[in-house]
Design brief:
Elements lengths: L3 E7 L14 E5 L2 E5 L14 E4 L4 E4 L3 E2 L9 E5 L2 E5 L9 E8 L4 E13 L2 E4 L3 E9 L2 E10 L4 E4 L14 E5 L2 E8 L3 E9 L4 E5 L2 E2 L9 E5 L2 E5 L2 E3 L10 E2 L3 E5 L4 E7 L14 E7 L2 E10 L5 E9 L1
Parallel strand pairs: 1-25, 6-10, 19-25
Antiparallel strand pairs: 1-28, 2-3, 3-4, 4-5, 7-8, 8-9, 9-10, 10-12, 11-12, 12-13, 13-14, 15-16, 16-17, 17-18, 20-21, 21-24, 22-23, 24-25, 26-27, 27-28
């Protein structure tokens, strides 16, 4: 069987960008990528500017934002629904876990603090469909969490879903994805790197742990995730944590894998013959799904490297 091949492209950057950072977040609306949060030195939030990268001109700018501008934070997540970006949680400069939900209107450049929602957390995971923002897991005040929440952007209400129970342990840095009407939790760090896969079906409000086959990735966390069709793509991640915890660099992976949510089979992707660029091993990146030249793919920006240096490059992967 021929190996699946994808292509990485390293994007040029013009203008003054956010610089090297990890534990930050990125979201694409139209042809612009919005970057918020992150750290250059471990656990120290860099800034609370909203940096904007034009995917056509490859030029950086800073949004002239108004309204309820969120304070600086690390371990934060953001997702777009339509032309609005939603930002949740993270950890502030005093290392306190946060639980406010903010929206940023990309048409008016206005921030709005919407509500406090799920319990305080950082290094959680967020995904969205066309009506809901989903939050799962992360590091809470009392330890790692395994709760799943949905924010209805039309009704402006939070819903807490049933707990998954002991099978799906509390974890930080998992993959979270909506595919085929189900919400998938992939891997993560639960005191150690884990390789279990679960999904929640909102229709029957039930959790299921699945057995996967194929070229299964090793246990990992803080990897990049995107859904294309029925496939969940993951790239990189931490496969062996540092003895120094968040202050050091663990061992990172560099490959791309997909999980087919119908067959539950994993597949590893190789670089195509004309793919000279590759982000290499990394984790704690900002990542998002997007389109380039009309093709869906994964955008990866920055992150942490095996040398514990923060990165400032941008790559786009197209399967």
């Amino acid at each position: 069987m021929a190996l699946a091949q994808g292509k990485w492209v390293k994007l040029d950057q013009h203008g003054t960008g956010p610089g090297a950072r990890s534990s930050h977040a990125i979201a694409i609306v139209g042809q612009k990528a919005y970057v918020f949060g992150g750290e250059f030195a471990p656990r120290v939030p860099v800034d609370n500017k909203l940096h904007v990268f034009d995917l056509e001109t490859l030029t950086w700018s800073v949004a002239d934002a108004t309204g309820d501008i969120p304070p600086p934070r690390v371990g934060v997540t953001m997702v777009p629904v339509g032309k609005t970006i939603y930002v949740f949680g993270g950890r502030d400069v005093e290392h306190k876990e946060l639980n406010e939900l903010y929206s940023f209107d990309t048409c008016t450049n206005k921030w709005t603090q919407l509500s406090t929602g799920p319990p305080h957390r950082s290094y959680h995971s967020t995904t969205a469909d066309d009506r809901h923002v989903y939050i799962f897991g992360g590091c809470g005040v009392e330890g790692r969490l395994n709760d799943l929440w949905a924010y209805d952007v039309a009704d402006h209400k939070w819903v807490k879903y049933p707990a998954p129970g002991d099978k799906c342990k509390g974890r930080g840095g998992p993959g979270l994805a909506v595919a085929q009407g189900k919400i998938w939790v992939v891997y993560g760090f639960a005191g150690m790197e884990v390789d279990d896969v679960h999904y929640f079906d909102p229709a029957c409000e039930e959790w299921t742990q699945v057995e996967t086959t194929g070229e299964k990735p090793t246990p990992r966390s803080v990897f990049s995730t995107v859904v294309i069709g029925k496939d969940i793509f993951i790239h990189g991640g931490e496969v062996d944590p540092s003895d120094l915890g968040h202050m050091g660099a663990g061992k990172f992976a560099r490959e791309v894998y997909t999980l087919d949510t119908e067959t539950l089979a994993w597949k590893r992707w190789d670089d195509g013959p004309d793919s000279s660029d590759h982000p290499g091993p990394r984790g704690w990146c900002a990542f998002t799904g997007g389109k380039r030249d009309g093709k869906e793919g994964l955008l990866v920006y920055g992150g942490n490297s095996p040398s514990n240096d923060r990165l400032d490059d941008i790559f786009f992967f197209t399967p």
